[in-house]
Amino acid sequence: MSLSEAIHEKFTTLFGQQPLLVRSPARINLIGEHTDYNMGFVLPAAIDKEIIFAVAPNEAGRFRLFAYNFDTYIEIDNQTLTPQIQNSWTNYLMGVVEQFQQLGFTVPSFDCIFGGEIPKGAGLSSSAAVECGLAFALNQLFGFNLTKLDLVKLCQKAENQFVGVQCGIMDQFANTFGKENHVILLDCRSLDFQYFPLNLHDYQLVLLDTGVHHSLASSEYNTRRKECEEGVHILKKYEPTILSLRDATIEILEKYKNEFDETTWKRCHFIVQENQRVLAVCEALQKNDLGEVGRKMFASHQGLQYDYEVSCDELDFLVGLAAKDADVLGARMMGGGFGGCTINLVRAQSAPSFIEKAQKAYSDYKGMELKAYTVKIAGGTSEWA
Ligand code: GLA
Q1: Atom 9 (ligand 1) nearest CA
Q2: Which residue, 134, 163, 198, sits at the end of a domain?
């Protein structure tokens, strides 16, 4: 039985009615890390790993929620929406409901089952998939008529305000606007975007999942945001048109280097370079220059490791293996950092042996099983057909 069939069956058994089925994907990011909240560029895509939602209105006056992967059922009174203890999966759902309410919509009570194959904490944005899947379903079921961009912003706010993570807009955007075989060049300031065909020829994308998620992740994420703001604060004194690091150049940074402490300067330097790398990768894709795409991926990782300092030993180990492999054009850590996956651009016919070697090496190094995912670029959240 497929995942969608299993979730459909569970829904009819548990709630005795027919649901709307929605598919909500994970995302990758080819390049452009930590640039979204600096109003810069990112190059993400939705992939063929997903969560399935089954949702229908109910007469119970309560939200009846079932997390298929955790085999857990929870009922929530639709009058009292307050965040539950940290990390509760219900926060991702109720945060979305609360945002609809903040926009003035009445959200009738509903039944909901969701579950799927996006590993949690792997840097593939399972949280955005949960938020955006439910937002899409409620928008359809209750005819709220919000646009896709409205839903993206609503879900980002849910994560910022209800879940309490100060994420940028990339994950929710990629989830919602994903398009098969294309990466999305998103300008995180104007929210203008452009699809670039991702022709990988005889290469493919392989994700290697460290299986670790260091507890530093969310506090360091917020610290990086502050460090970037501090950089903007310094530059603005001299160059008032600089409103975010997006507006800075390497020349400007060099000019005012003496005003910065070393850490803040490194953070800012990384962001300015990373923005340039995103645009360079788009140019390389247009020229079918995958070698250049790969080099920029390695350079991005170096910056994330040494300047932005959001990598960790496990990620560095895996990128180090990739760098030594002639069949890998590029590799880097992906997402917020401190664990999760590396993304690797690998010659397709060598992918199985690359994965096998990495698994052996990782097991020798960490004594842990290394999960590997060969991913395809897929469409964004939609009704399950
Ligand atoms: C997390 C956040 C995103 C983005 C990335 C880093 O995935 O949710 O908004 O900032 O980290 O690029």
Answers
A1: 168
A2: 198
Instruction: Give 76's strand partners.
Output: 63
pLDDT at 86 over 90: no
* Chosen domain end from 139, 173, 198: 198
| Whether 208 contacts 358, CB under 8 Å | yes
Q: By C-alpha distance, which of 21, 26, 69, 22 is closest to 48?
A: 26
Q: Is 171 a catalytic residue?
A: yes
- Cα–Cα dist 238/31, whole Å: 30
**CA gap 236, 152 in Å, rounded:** 30
Other beta carbons within 10 angstroms of residue 97's beta carbon come to 22
Rg of the chain on CA atoms, in Å: 21
Nearest to 81 by CA among 63, 103, 66: 63
Backbone φ, ψ for residue 49 (5° rounding) = -125, 135
Ligand 1 centroid distance, CA of 124 (Å): 10
State the residue range of the domain holding 358: 203-375
Q: Give pLDDT, residue 168.
A: 96
User: Which percentage of the chain shows pLDDT scores above 90?
Assistant: 92
Closest Cα partner for 93 from 151, 132, 42? 132
| Domain of residue 95, CATH code | 3.30.230.10
Provide φ and ψ at 374, rounded to 5°. Answer: -95, 115
Q: Given 48, 71, 150, 171, which residue is catalytic?
A: 171
In terms of domains, do 186 and 275 share one? Answer: no
Instruction: Dump pLDDT digits (tens) for 133-144.
Output: 999 999 999 999
Whether residue 173 has its Cβ less than 6 Å from ligand 1: no
- CA pseudo-torsion sign 78, 89, 379, 14: negative
What's phi and psi for 317, nearest 5 deg? -60, -45
| Best residue among 170, 214, 271, 315 to mutate for probing ligand 1, ranked by most atoms within 8 Å of CB | 170
Whole-number Å distance between alpha carbons of 140 and 259 = 52
Side-chain-side CA neighbours of 93 within 13 Å: the count stands at 27
Q: How far is the CA of 123 from the centre of ligand 1 (A)?
A: 9
Task: Indicate if the pLDDT at residue 255 is higher than 90.
Answer: yes
